[in-house]
């Protein structure tokens, strides 16, 4: 059985402790279920800053928002294995 390789995108910014925590969870999960990871810093992008400003980190899987503020490791694993 083959699995589709997912794309996970983390929107955040530097010096954000919740963003750092989210990245730790993403990297842990990536070791178990490989996926393409994109980290986007919203600091220098006015549109992204307006959209996500105080809601970071925000995580998307394949273009669908799945987490805001905190990443649930079990739920992410389930989404990536589905």
Task: Describe what this molecule looks like in 3D.
The protein has 82 residues and is of the alpha+beta class. It has a single domain (7-81), classed as Glutaredoxin (3-Layer(aba) Sandwich). It contains three helices and four strands. It has helices spanning 17-32, 46-52, 73-81, and strands at 7-12, 36-41, 58-61, 64-68. It has a four-stranded mixed β-sheet, with helices on one face. The longest helix has 16 residues, at 17-32. The protein starts with 6 loop residues before the first strand and ends with a helix. The mean pLDDT is 94.
Average pLDDT number: 94
Shape: globular
Main CATH class? Alpha Beta
Write out the CATH superfamily name.
Glutaredoxin
How much of the sequence lies in strands comes to 25-35%
Structural class: alpha+beta
What order do the strands of the largest sheet run in, or round the barrel if closed? 2-1-3-4
Question: Which helices and strands occur, and which strands form pairs?
Answer:
Blueprint: E1 7-12, H1 17-32, E2 36-41, H2 46-52, E3 58-61, E4 64-68, H3 73-81
Parallel strand pairs: 1-2
Antiparallel strand pairs: 1-3, 3-4
Overview in brief:
With 82 residues, the chain is of the alpha+beta class.
Features:
alpha+beta, Glutaredoxin, 4-stranded mixed sheet, 3 helices, 4 strands, 39% helix
